[in-house]
Structures are given as C-alpha cells and as structure tokens.
Amino acid sequence: MTVHTFSPEGLFAPVPYHHVAVGTGRRRIEIAGQIDRDGDRGSTAPDDLTGQVAQVLRNTHRALVGAGASFDDVMRLRFFVTQWHPDKAPEFFAGVERVAAELGLPTPLPPASLIGVDALFEPDVLVELEASATID
Q1: Full domain range(s) for residue 19
Q2: Phi, psi dihedral angles at 104 (to 5 degrees)
Q3: Where does the chain show beta strands of DSSP type E?
Q4: What's the rounded Cα separation, in Å, for the pair 83 and 40?
Q5: Cβ proximity of 134 and 73 under 8 Å
Q6: Among the listed residues 40, 85, 88, 92, the one whose alpha carbon sits nearest the alpha carbon of residue 62
Q7: Which three-class secondary structure string do you get for 7-31?
Q8: Cα within 13 Å of Cα(79), Cβ side
C-alpha cells in the first residue's frame, strides 16, 4: 500500500478520520471537486445532504478507479458544505455510511476536512468533494 494513515497520540479524538497520511507512491492523483451530478442524468441527484454526500463519494470513487486507484490510496479528502452547522453532522455522516461498504471506504477515513461555505457554484449543490491520492 502506498498510503499509510494514522493518528498520533495527543491529537483530537475521536474523529471519523485519521489525522495523518504518508504517501510513498510515485504518481499523485488530484480529483477535482465532485458534486452530485451523475453522468447519465446530467442533473442533480437527491436534494438532501445525505443523498448528495453519497453521490459525491460515488463520483469520487469513479474518478479514482479511472486513475487506477481506490479510496485506500487517498491521502486527503476535502468536503465543502453549504451553510454548514454542526446540527447537519448526522445527515452528513448518514451519506458516508450509506455508501461505505459499496465503495470500500476505509474506517476511519483518510485525513479529511469539512469546510463550511456560503454557496457553491450552483444553488442546488449542497456538497462538493476534492480528493488527493498517490499510487505506485
């Protein structure tokens, strides 16, 4: 495996992700911000946060596979969520749990950030996900 994830003692816990990723691969993969658009539909998937989180993870998985990688190769996930408030956390994590087995999401996740934003590029987009990975 080209990515080793861990959380050193003394860092904030518990969190659903590792704090550190060390990559030893030679190829770096950057996945552009994925939203809930499905290539077949060309329109948004569900209009709720849970459904959109699940879809952006599916789209990110498709992009990773297209580059010859998987979520095991991911060094960082960066989520952008509109109008974020901690009360939205259960709905957000329900979306992650919905596709965890389907996509082979590692538990805990690789290092991740959740960044609250006022808006994304279209008004119906609630979440966007960027990913960085490394492979041999």
Answers
A1: 3-135
A2: 70, 40
A3: 3-6, 20-23, 27-34, 74-82, 112-117, 127-135
A4: 28
A5: yes
A6: 40
A7: CCCCCCCCCCECCEEEECCCEEEEE
A8: 27
Q: Which residues of 74-109 are buried (b: 16+ CB within 10 A; e: fewer)?
A: bbbbbbbbbebeeebeebbeebbebbbeebebbebb
**Side-chain-facing half-sphere of 15: CA atoms under 13 Å:** 18
pLDDT at 89: 96
**At 44, is the pLDDT very low, low, confident or very high (cuts 50, 70, 90)?**
low
CATH number at residue 33: 3.30.1330.40
The distance between the two most distant Cα atoms of the chain, rounded to a whole number of Å, is: 46
Lowest mean pLDDT among 8-17, 26-35, 67-76, 114-123: 8-17
Query: How many domains is the chain built from?
Result: 1
Distance CA 22, CA 6 (A): 9
For the question of whether the overall pTM of this predicted structure is more than 0.85, the answer is yes
Please state, in angstroms and rounded to a whole number, the distance separating the CA atoms of residues 104 and 120: 27
Which residues have a Cβ under 8 Å from the Cβ of 98 and sit 6 or more positions away?
A: 50, 53, 54
Least Cα distance to 92 among 56, 135, 44, 40 occurs for: 56
